[in-house]
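Researcher: Sequence recovery benchmark, item below. Answer with residues only.
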């Protein structure tokens, strides 16, 4: 049959991990959550192809279709009926991950009435994370409970692109978490302090022009509308808060890493010692990791920058796992997306403060963000408590300042350093690893003279000079 052929993107529900990476980059708002996977609305899709590049599982496929061929069924638009339930509280938190739950705990402890809206049924499940956190990153906000921790981190093995190994001896460096247990634990603490948490509830829309007035959510087919004075956007990179606060800002392919990851059962891991593998053949723009979780289990994955990678994350992952392990069993997939570069200034709009991944508060080099989500949730709640009664402009400014003066500046620096690192060739990375190997030989990480090491590295790599002077 003759006809006009158009590209059409569809989602393979079997492969979709519901990580919302595609939603976060879609410039046409054409992707939405269906029952067991995301769906693409063909009427809104403009065939840009970004979602396909970002998807860590290969669930989005692009096929040429005749315009006359039947298209996938999808909603035309979000049709929101009259609310079944209307509520009012002081603080609404959209998203119950580490950032939202931390905010819920600190805001309710400060005496506010708090509602949390979380689309998942169970906290932290599915896990889309390697679950590593530094001791400082966790204890800065919470005293960890035993059940939150799968294992401790006592050092690291770093592999340069040439496969040479570098051991970093760093006792009590951090933890590999059990995220579902940690998040359920913080949720219980928040509830004990008075917070009300709606699980299996998806926020659909924030209403209000200059400042947020209410949020509309769907729970078991019913529409819930909650009015509040303050809003905290903690719904991750694909959520609605960031879009409401910054409708014009589009996340691009350079601004994220797309990560293929599994929970692996294998005896071929070193207890308490995570591994990091670098190189353009392994993970272009990112790195591959092995995070041991005890009992012969490990989170094994990699992150790549989709704009510079020639293959899909799945392809790189298959190669990595075949090269690194000989005997293993994949227990479950744990794929996802990490924001890595952009920053919103200020991180919010009006009376809505963004925290965690929704604010793009991650470490651009390691791609980690649990610690910053926990911490930004805490300071957002504290700022609301301290600035209560003052103007929203002042409140947002105070949040921005407090973030900048605590972790923000450092993270901005990492974002710039990432640009330098992306330009390094494998050979230059090998040289840097060689220098580090000499410095580390027989010494603990804490005994190192970091500024001297950076100086040595920069001397041989002038590309990094501009950025590294901030560390010296
Ligand atoms: C593969 C992978 C490995 C990673 N490894 C690490 C690591 O080892 N260490 C580390 O520190 N970081 C890691 N990260 C990053 C880390 O997972 C995030 O930075 C962290 O989860 C951010 O927390 P958050 O609370 O801001 O957002 P999230 O954890 O994304 O939580 C957002 C919550 O909002 C909910 N939500 C979203 N939209 C809506 C809506 N419309 N209505 C209601 N609820 C909604 C979601 O269900 C979710 O529970 C990794 C990420 C990936 C993808
Ligand atoms: S192809 Fe582009 S417009 Fe269409 S769903 Fe994917 S990201 Fe959105
Ligand atoms: S990017 Fe994530 S949510 Fe989108 S189709 Fe792929 S796995 Fe599903």
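Model:
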């Amino acid at each position: 049959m003759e006809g006009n052929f158009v590209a059409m993107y569809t989602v393979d529900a079997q492969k979709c991990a519901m990580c919302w990476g595609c939603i976060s980059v879609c410039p046409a708002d054409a992707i939405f959550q269906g029952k067991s996977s995301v769906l693409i609305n063909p009427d809104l899709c403009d065939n840009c192809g970004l979602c396909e590049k970002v998807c860590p599982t290969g669930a989005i496929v692009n096929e040429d279709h005749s315009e006359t061929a039947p298209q996938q069924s999808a909603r035309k638009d979000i049709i929101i009926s009259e609310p079944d339930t209307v509520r009012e509280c002081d603080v609404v938190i959209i998203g119950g991950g580490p950032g939202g739950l931390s905010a819920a705990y600190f805001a309710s402890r400060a005496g506010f009435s708090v509602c949390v809206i979380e689309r998942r049924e169970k906290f932290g499940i599915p896990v889309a994370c390697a679950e590593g956190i530094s001791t400082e990153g966790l204890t800065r906000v919470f005293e960890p409970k035993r059940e939150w921790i799968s294992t401790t981190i006592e050092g690291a093995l770093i592999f340069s692109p040439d496969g040479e190994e570098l051991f970093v001896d760093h006792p009590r460096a951090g933890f590999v978490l059990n995220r579902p247990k940690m998040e359920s634990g913080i949720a219980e603490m928040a509830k004990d302090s008075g917070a009300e948490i709606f699980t299996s509830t998806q926020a659909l829309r924030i209403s209000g022009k200059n400042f947020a007035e209410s949020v509309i959510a769907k729970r078991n087919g019913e529409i819930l509308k909650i009015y509040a004075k303050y809003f905290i956007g903690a719904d991750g990179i694909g959520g609605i808060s960031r879009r409401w606060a910054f409708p014009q800002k589009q996340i691009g392919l350079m601004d994220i890493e797309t990560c293929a990851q599994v929970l692996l059962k294998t005896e071929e891991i070193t207890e308490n010692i995570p591994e990091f593998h670098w190189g353009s053949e392994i993970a272009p723009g990112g790195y591959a990791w092995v995070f041991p979780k005890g009992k012969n289990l490990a989170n094994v994955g990699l992150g790549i920058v989709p704009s510079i990678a020639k293959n899909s994350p799945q392809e790189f992952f298959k190669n990595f796992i075949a090269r690194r392990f000989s005997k293993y069993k994949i227990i479950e997939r744990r794929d996802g997306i990490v924001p890595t570069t952009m920053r919103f200034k200020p991180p919010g709009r009006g009376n809505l403060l963004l925290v965690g991944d929704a604010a793009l508060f991650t470490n651009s080099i390691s791609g980690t963000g649990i610690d910053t989500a926990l911490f930004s949730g805490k300071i957002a709640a504290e700022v609301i408590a301290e600035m209560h009664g003052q103007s929203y402009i002042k409140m947002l400014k105070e949040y921005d300042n407090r973030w900048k003066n605590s972790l923000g500046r450092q993270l901005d620096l990492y974002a710039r350093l990432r640009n330098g690192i992306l330009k390094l060739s494998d050979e230059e990375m090998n040289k840097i690893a060689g220098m580090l190997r000499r410095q580390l030989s027989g010494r603990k990480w804490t005994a190192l003279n970091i500024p001297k090491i950076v100086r040595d590295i920069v001397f041989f790599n002038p590309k990094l000079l501009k950025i590294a002077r901030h560390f010296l």
